[in-house]
Amino acid sequence: MEVKRYKKTSKKLLSFLNWIPFAILMIPLLGLIYSSIIEDGKTIDIFSLVLPTGRRFSLLIRSILLSLSVSLTSLFIALSSALKLYSVSPKNKRVTDTIWRISILMLLLPSFIHSQSWWKTFGILSLPTSGLLPAWWVSVMYFLPLPFTLISLSLKAIDKDALEAGAVFFSPGVALLRVVLPSVLPAILGGALLVFLLSLADYSIPSIFSLNVYSLDIFAQFSVSGSVADSFFYSLPLLMIASVVVIVGLNLLQDLSLTTKGETIRNHVTIVLPPSVSLLSGMGLVISLLCILIPSSNLILGMFQSVNTVETIEMGLSELINSLIISSGSLLISLPLSLSIGMQMSNKKLSGLAYFVLILPLIMPASLIGIGLIGVFHSTYWYNSIVMPILAIAIRYTPVGALLCYSGFKGLDKEMINASLVYQKSTLNGFLKILFPVLFPIILMAALSIFIIGTGEIGATIMVLPPGFNTLSIKIYNYLHYGSSQVVSVLCFMLVSAIIIVVGIAQLGTFYTQKGRDKNDS
Amino acid sequence: MKKLTTLVLFGMVLILLSACSMTEKNELVIYTSVDQIYSEPIFNLFEKETGIKVKAVYDVESQKTTGMASRLEAEKSKPVADLFWNGEFTKTIALTEKGVLSDYIAFGGRARVLLVNTEKIKPDDYPTTLTDLLSEKYQPSMIAIARPMFGTTFSQACALYAQLGDEPGKIFFEQVKNRGIKIVEGNSVVRDMVVSGEVAMGLTDTDDAYDAINKEKPVAIIFLDQKSDEMGTLIIPNTIAFVSGRPESSSAKEFMDFITSDKAAVLLYESGWIDFVEKPELIKNQRFDFSKVKGMKISLEEICEQQDVVVEDLTKLFMD
User: Fold this and answer.
1) Which of A176-190, A422-436, A449-463, B1-15 has the highest mean pLDDT?
2) pLDDT in tens, B144-154
3) CATH number of this structure's domain A45-521
């Protein structure tokens, strides 16, 4: 009887704990509601703000179509290039690993750098430099590293036995369709969803190429009205559509039954591709390499033009340290939240409301997240401290971490894990010996993504930065406006180098964890 | 694993420790929308001269001062900043009307100018008035302006409405749109497009324009509407205001005096942030004789009164 009551209580406690991450994601919204209430006696025409008609409706449709095409194109390129990478001999393992690692670092460069580099390239090639086509292409190039890394990691963890069996019993084409693709499907869908959401929320690239999108309209509305409530209601249609897409996408993901073996990321598989697919994926790989080469060559050229490299490094050092402190702090908050939400999502279908709350921080204009946080924490003693930007970044990018964790968990062989857990002495023992090593690659991928994307965040951070405390990304944007490409190149180089060091340390951690596991196994 | 847990806990403790409020006596919190590259040296000099520490919060251009203004408004009940130094005036006046700021002062200034690429257009063909941009003489694809709902282009639109009246103002921008003049992200993009020759001319501010001149790019600056019967060009002053609700601070007053002093005027002029100072005799090597530039004869308040109607018209026109 006592045990039963204990179980009931712990179940209630667990279900309460499950809601905590969602409650944290709701903080900016609560702050916005509070800020809206205290907006001086203003009456809001909610109906006309929430319901997009005429111009706004066509803008909304355009934004959705643009994000869909960006998502699908980047996914296609990511998949084909990842397949090409893993169809080469294991001897070239280092080359393949290096390519996707450099690729994810590209996310660190401000979107303006990508846009500027491609703008110059379009000019040289006499291609259009404004409108839908260049905006679409640069968005694809900017977001490509995310699905590319996700699929590459998924391919690394593919079930080797199934792959070998597929190679024996099927032709390369059939093996690709029946074994390889289903195994990486969670990563494909997860990547597509992430790119769709991030592209839907982004207006920086479309606006540079003179293309109006709904998120830019929200910003324009906020800029001219200065009303928090108006802007929030204005952004609701985008939020609702994004929620529907996420729910449909995740339901598709829930229905997938095939999984990878949950192996560690040190494995290197060799996928055999049919000649036609090999050619296509070769082209995909070339495009992925361009996504690295075009912005980085632009930066390197800028570096060589710089006359005061040492002085510039000194000038940006304290901001770099600030950026790393804030990103690390936000990672400490965001990672447990992402893990918790990711696990909940992989265990059961969540309600529509939960999905809405999850994507809220990603789609909501970044400035509104900052204002929401001001509304809630303005009177607290830590308001004027780095806790605020840490919280802002953590909340904004937890959805990215959660979706990455979810697509990773979805690819795990749960039956095998559960069977292994049965033989463990305690839950803690099971977590440390079975779950943690299996989850480690997923955790690492989510952690690095949150850290890298968070380091470049500006919109929410700038609203809550304590006075006298600046980040390197904000400094870079300031110098971008000044047109000082040399200084920007050096500062971006600093940021990328710092992240490489952090990634290197994480890589060492992976190596030693693996070494420890091997020792224990033997 | 133990080491990892210790490391994580250590990190959390570090963050909590640094979470303690960082305000001290003898320091000043200034929010500024002026680019860090121009405002930071001023703060450093003020610190050096007075011993008062300046804790600044900077904006970025992509936020178009909106972020900073919204932050000030959100903090209204318990303000953090002592002063707001704005690179333009519309947000300052709007925030003053809302009671967020008080006692603003306008100083210095940048002008709206036409930047032309000297390799693309001959001096005899340079436009002389704003309405020349609508002339058939100039290909619309060779002209660029920044989105007129934001920044100083928005201020110029409001000034045009105030000068010409609502309807003529609206017709001007309708023609800008109908002609197919290039609408781009910001003034710095206009400058870059003119410099690269992608367009032959574009409207921008003097600070952006002189940046191109200083880099010896093939460009020239045209002040539009300078004849006696023409309206003149918009000169956009910097503004600085006290944040309402903050305890009275001598340091804030000291900075206010400093930023409006002759010394700061020379520094801001030499850095390229402003091109107009109240006392021309202070500047030995003038980039141009700014005493001869004809500014629009219209008050900042009158310009600001146009904001609502301009927003409505331009959002409909340019966000489609």
Assistant:
1) A449-463
2) 998 888 888 99
3) 1.10.3720.10
> What residues of chain B lie within 8 A of the CB of A327, using their CB?
none
Q: What are phi and psi of A397, to 5 degrees?
A: -105, 5
A44 confidence band (pLDDT: 50, 70, 90): low
Q: Could you tell me the residue ranges of all domains in chain B?
A: 25-109+235-287, 114-234+299-318
- In Å, what is the CA distance from A155 to each residue of A96, A102, A149, A184, A486? 12, 17, 10, 6, 38
Residue A345 structure tokens: 């999502």
Nearby residues of B20 by Cβ (< 8 Å), 6 or more positions away: A382, A385
pLDDT exceeds cutoff 70 at A60: yes
Q: Which CATH number applies to B114-234+299-318?
A: 3.40.190.10
Tell me the range of A347-351, A476-480, A494-498 where mean pLDDT is highest: A494-498
pLDDT in tens, A449-478: 888 888 888 888 888 889 888 888 888 877
Fold category of B25-109+235-287 in CATH: D-Maltodextrin-Binding Protein; domain 2 (3.40.190)
Tell me which chain B residue has its CA closest to the CA of residue A516.
B1
Under an 8 A CB cutoff, do B311 and A375 touch?
Answer: no
With a pLDDT cut of 90, the percent of chain A lying above it is: 10
* Sequence-ordered alpha helix ranges (H) in chain B: 2-18, 36-50, 66-74, 90-97, 151-164, 166-179, 187-196, 206-214, 250-259, 262-271, 300-305, 307-318
User: For A268-321, where are the E strands, in sequence order?
Assistant: none
Which residues, 6 or more positions from A114, have their beta carbon under 8 angstroms from its beta carbon?
A: A106, A138, A141, A142, A205, A294, A295
* List of chain A residues whose C-beta atoms are within 8 Å of the C-beta of residue B181: none
Domain ranges, ordered by start, for chain A: 45-521
The answer for residues whose C-beta is within 8 angstroms of residue A215's C-beta and 6 or more apart is A63, A200, A201, A202, A203, A235, A238, A365
Q: pLDDT per residue over A214-237, tens digit each? A: 887 777 777 666 677 777 888 888
CA distance B183 to chain A (A): 7
Pick the more confident residue, A339 or A304: A339
pLDDT digits (tens, 9 = 90+) for A309-326: 777 888 888 899 999 999
Cα separations in angstroms, A270 against A124, A164, A180? 38, 10, 11
What are A160's two structure tokens? Answer: 């080797």
Q: B74-77 — which CB contacts under 8 Å span 24+ positions?
A: B74/A35, B74/A228, B74/A371, B74/A374, B74/A375, B74/A378, B74/A463, B75/A374, B75/A378, B76/B100, B76/B244, B76/B245, B77/A38, B77/A378, B77/A379, B77/B245
Asked whether the beta carbons of residue A228 and residue B70 sit closer than 8 angstroms, the reply is yes
ipTM score assigned to the predicted complex: 0.73
Question: For chains A and B, what is the number of CB pairs under 8 angstroms?
Answer: 175
**More confidently predicted of B223 and B249:** B223
Question: Above 60 in pLDDT, residue B66?
Answer: yes
CA distance B188 to chain A (A): 6
- Minimum-distance CB partner of B58 among A40, A466, A474: A474
**CB-CB neighbors (< 8 A) of A464 in chain B:** 71
pLDDT in tens, A259-279: 444 444 445 567 777 777 778
Chain A interface, best mutation among B15, B251, B317, by max A CB count within 10 A: B15
Portion 73-132 of A in contact with B at CB < 8 A = 123, 129-130
**Chain-chain contact of A222 with B66 (C-beta, under 8 angstroms):** yes
More reliable by pLDDT, B278 or B294: B294
In the block, tokens 């003119």 appear at B194
